[in-house]
Design goal:
The structure is a single chain. The chain contains 31 helices and 27 strands. Strands 10, 11, 12, 15, 16, 17, 18, 19, 20 and 21 form a ten-stranded mixed beta sheet that branches. The chain has an eight-stranded mixed beta sheet with strand order 8-27-26-25-9-22-24-23, sandwiched between helices. β18 and β19 form a beta hairpin. The longest helix has about 40 residues. It is elongated and about 115 Å long. Bound molecules: adenosine-5'-triphosphate (ATP). Adenosine-5'-triphosphate binds next to α13, β16, β17 and β20.
């Protein structure tokens, strides 16, 4: 076999290419594929060399603040302050280790997610079609591609059907390229080769079968390496906002530190080295250097929790946006409903036949109005059987479908009405087909009949088929004039029962053409309709109620009929009286009118992907934050436009997934609601991390600055400041990243999208807590000195007071607005209790262990003093609980929207104030 790259595959005939690759139309055998995989390696892009761990570790020392600290350590060392030098160095190392570990965990979580959404390819091996991981493809594999697929490797087309490919990743061309199996002249440039499909490009329309000619780095894209730089960075708008804030805060702290140093050394009589050490320690203490890392962890944990609930986040910002979602626009079939179809009724001009039974089991009772009705049902079922790509199989006692569920249900129906599927398929072999697509909403197949004539079988949306029909089948073989009113009524009747309705039609041709064209699907004879039952998912009904409770509107956008969609909307309780708008109506309204209509309506029926895009835009223009689901290639623009595009993991195309911020592993609406829940929790936790980090840092700094200003003895030594900041605060604060959601999280209104993280409420809370820390620490210090304690003991008491207050504050901050002083609140979580235990042990060692006493210049504390210190924590907790009560009474917090489980839509309700 020829090596991957040197052959001019585009100039070879398809058959010659196959021969050169030692392959055939049946595909490779598994053994041969395994051999080639060993030879050519997996079909993967080898990314940029990973940065070695030691370099990633050292990166943590490049921070200006750390450089500042290290220089202080060097100065301290050179002046003989060994303890300070060692403590500062240790702190720097601990900080780097913590940062390194945190970064690693966040990266790991994201890498795991990336592998969860690894794409699959449809491959022919040993004559059987299989779905394989793209990485397993080898040269010589036969792949089939359809609209929405991403081309998994470079391949030579063997058979093309109107295939259009978007090659912009490779060539930058914005217009999709038409491809074909015809060889290109040898000299054709890479961008113009019509017979080659290039890895990583997208199939926009049509279908093709192709043989893989190059994989991995041997592909064009691999050689250019343009995809390698698209490794997604672990950043989000929120992280950037925090990073910017952190940088400004650091700059401010450093300038303030210099001013303070000059002030202390010149206007107050501190020795300049002492002043320098304190100021350095203060700067380190006040700068929230761990904030971005802890917030990244919070996001990563959110991402992991969402994945556990089947919502796989592809872009980190989606986690934040999810929490702000105000409208979810969802597909119906398979997302809100189960997509487990059972054909229930067949209506023809001769009467109605109903079939009982559940699932896909081809067993059930028939009820019909006479032999004619049954014969009519058999005619319709025959079309359903011929115009069908699915297969039914019995596995572990259960009937399952390979392929489209509706087509599976049609096979079951055919058997129920007494057809012999095998002989029918053998008697009318399929010559060609036009696959279903959401644009023309039908599927058609061409069959050769034993008498030399041909039959076109069509199934699809009944209105579309009716508009293509001239006659309907009736008493005479030639058929009778189409009775549109009759069918309209029948369709609406079935739709009102919540049945999904499919129409069936045929056309006879005297001779058999080689292929079937769209123009042949005309002048049809309408045969009848079938109603399918596709019940709503139980969990979707619950999730819809939950969304309403959380102030989120749910809208159904479906390709299905208005009557069916309305009935299902009612079952799902989307609204008391769901307002339905059809795609045809959408066509007639202006963009301005659409803004109003988009908000009012609950259901959009017979909607196309273009309608989805207009709807997203209209809703966004109305100020909504929109989550939109989609699966098809044409859904990609709407998915991109939405604030969060949500692609279906099972039935979604690769194009839809690529355009989305999130993929649903189970295609289930309930998973979107779960992701919103987790998204809200993440945002809450981020707020908690901030409400924790800033006041603890600021409070500590203010206590020292107050003393510096007054020219009194300092309440803490530099080493002690670093102890509080780097050991106590960071250990306790990390717990907040793991916080479970508060119970009322889905009873609040969505937060405003552009809401500032440091809202007036947050600023107030930070100021209040900082003040409590400062006042309490200064008071303890003054009290101890007043009682004649020595300076070292007074300082030890201050550090212990900080420790106690931080522990109490941790309990308080876990509930930003709710009472923390409850049984559940006091019980904490394993993470909370673990961190408190660790900090308590460390603090006891700090106070009583001789070695620590030598390092930190601490003294043992008497029991009575210990109790007084404990009281500072209790008083702090009480003040904060009182503050929450007061804010609740003053109505600063929004009222909860409803009690969980109850039904309350947003429609008709005035908007409640957004979260503070
Ligand atoms: P959703 O509710 O998720 O938008 P949908 O199945 O209702 O999905 P489409 O897939 O666009 O929407 O289908 C629209 C219509 O096309 C269906 O109501 C049905 O009448 C018809 N249809 C769907 N699948 C097929 C098929 N495999 N063959 C023929 N017609 C089909």
């Amino acid at each position: 076999m020829t090596p991957q790259s040197s052959t001019a595959w585009h100039a070879l005939e398809a058959q010659a290419a196959l021969a050169q690759l030692d392959s055939s139309h049946q595909g490779l055998t598994d053994r041969e594929a395994a051999r080639r995989l060993a030879k050519f390696g997996p079909n993967e892009m080898v990314g940029r060399k990973a940065i070695p761990a030691w370099r990633r570790f050292l990166r943590h020392f490049s921070d200006p603040l750390i450089a500042f600290l290290l220089s202080a350590a060097v100065i301290a060392f050179s002046l003989g302050h060994l303890t300070d030098a060692i403590v500062i160095t240790l702190v720097v190392i601990i900080n780097a280790v913590v940062g390194f570990v945190q970064e690693g965990r966040a990266e790991q979580a994201l890498a795991a997610l990336r592998s969860m959404i690894a794409p699959q390819a449809h491959v022919l091996r040993d004559g059987k079609r299989r779905d394989l991981a793209v990485a397993e493809l080898v040269p010589g594999d036969i792949i089939s591609l359809e609209a929405g697929d991403r081309v998994p490797a470079d391949a030579r087309i063997l058979r093309a059907r109107n295939i259009l490919v978007d090659e912009s990743v490779l060539t930058g061309k914005s217009v999709a390229t038409q491809k074909s199996e015809t060889p290109d002249p040898v000299c054709t440039g890479m961008a113009d080769r019509a017979s080659i499909l290039y890895s990583s490009t997208f199939v926009v329309a049509g279908q093709a079968t192709a043989v893989v000619v190059a994989t991995g780095m041997a592909t064009q894209i691999g050689q250019i390496g343009s995809l390698l730089d698209t490794v997604r960075s672990v950043s989000t708008p929120l992280l950037q906002q925090i990073a910017t804030f952190g940088r400004r805060f650091t700059a401010f702290a450093l300038v303030a530190a210099v001013v303070l140093f000059i002030f202390a050394a010149t206007l107050r009589d501190y020795a300049w080295l002492d002043a320098l050490m304190v100021v350095v320690a203060l700067a380190v203490g006040v700068v929230p250097e761990s904030l971005p890392a802890v917030i990244t962890i919070t996001l990563a944990i959110g991402v992991r929790r969402m994945a556990a609930r089947q919502a796989i986040v592809r872009r980190l910002p989606a986690v934040e946006t999810l929490g702000a979602t105000t409208v979810i626009c969802s597909d119906k079939t398979g997302t809100l409903t189960r997509n487990e179809m059972t054909a229930h009724s067949v209506v023809t001009t001769a009467g109605t036949t109903t079939a009982s039974g559940t699932g896909y089991a081809p067993l059930g009772e028939l009820a019909h109005s006479g032999d004619d009705a049954l014969a009519g049902a058999q005619r319709v079922a025959t079309i359903g059987l011929l115009c069908n790509d699915a297969q039914l199989r019995l596995a572990a006692g259960e009937w399952r479908v390979d392929g489209d569920p509706m087509e599976g249900a049609l096979i079951a129906l055919a058997i129920k009405v007494g057809l012999d599927a095998e002989s029918l398929l053998a008697d009318a072999p399929r010559i060609d087909e036009i696959p279903f697509d959401a644009q023309h909403r039908y599927m058609a197949t061409l069959h050769a009949c034993t008498d030399g004539s041909a039959l076109i079988c069509v199934k699809g949306a009944p209105e579309n088929l009716l508009s293509l029909s001239r006659l309907q089948s009736g008493e005479t073989p030639a058929g009778q004039t189409l009775d549109l009113l009759l069918w309209d009524q029948a369709i609406v009747r079935a739709g009102e029962q919540g049945e999904r309705v499919l129409g069936f039609a045929t056309r006879r041709l005297d001779s058999t053409p080689h292929s079937l064209e769209v123009s042949d699907v005309a002048a049809l004879t309408f045969e009848g309709i079938v109603g399918f039952i596709d019940p709503p998912r139980e969990e979707a009904i619950l999730a819809v109620a939950q969304c309403h409770c959380a102030g989120i509107d749910v809208k159904m956008i479906t390709g299905d009929h208005a009557a069916t969609a309305a009935a299902i909307a009612l079952q799902l309780r989307l609204a008391e009286h769901p307002k339905v708008v059809t795609g045809a109506e959408l066509e007639t309204v202006t963009d301005g009118e659409l803004v109003r209509l988009a908000r009012e309506a609950n259901v959009f029926a017979r909607a196309t992907p273009e309608h989805k895009l207009r709807l997203v835009r209209a809703l966004q223009a109305a100020g909504e934050t929109v989550a939109m689901t989609g699966d098809g290639v044409n859904d990609a623009p709407a998915l991109k436009q939405a604030d969060i595009g949500v692609a279906m993991g099972r039935k979604g195309t690769e194009a839809a997934k690529q355009a989305s911020g999130m993929v649903l592993a189970d295609d289930n609406f309930a998973s979107i609601a779960a992701a919103v829940y987790e998204g809200r929790a993440v945002y809450d936790n981020i707020r908690k991390v901030i409400a924790w980090t800033l006041p603890t840092n600021i409070g500590e700094a203010l206590a020292v600055i107050t003393a510096l200003m007054l020219g009194s003895a300092l309440p803490m030594t530099p080493a002690q400041i670093l102890w509080i900041n780097m050991v106590l605060t960071i250990t306790l604060g990390l717990v907040l990243a793991f916080e479970p959601p508060e119970p009322d999280i889905m009873q609040r209104s969505p937060r405003r999208r552009n809401a500032q993280l440091l809202s007036p409420f947050m600023l107030w809370r930070i100021a209040l807590v900082s003040l409590i820390f400062t006042v309490a620490a200064s008071a303890i210090f003054a009290w101890a000195m007043h009682r004649g304690q020595d300076l070292a003991t007074a300082r030890t008491m201050v550090v212990n007071a900080f420790c106690v207050m931080e522990i109490f504050y941790l309990f308080s901050v876990r509930y930003l607005r709710m009472r923390a002083f409850t049984l559940q609140g006091l019980r904490g979580t394993p993470a909370v209790l673990g961190a408190i235990a660790a900090v308590t042990i460390a603090q006891f060692a700090f106070t009583y262990h001789p070695w620590m006493q030598a390092v930190f210049d601490t003294r043992p504390i008497a029991l009575l003093d210990g109790l007084v210190i404990l009281m500072t924590g209790v008083i702090m907790m009480l003040i904060l609980e009182l503050e929450k009560l007061l804010l609740r009474k003053l109505g600063i917090f929004e009222e909860l929207r409803c009690v969980p489980g109850s039904r309350s839509g947003r429609a008709g309700q005035s908007r409640v104030r957004a979260n503070p």
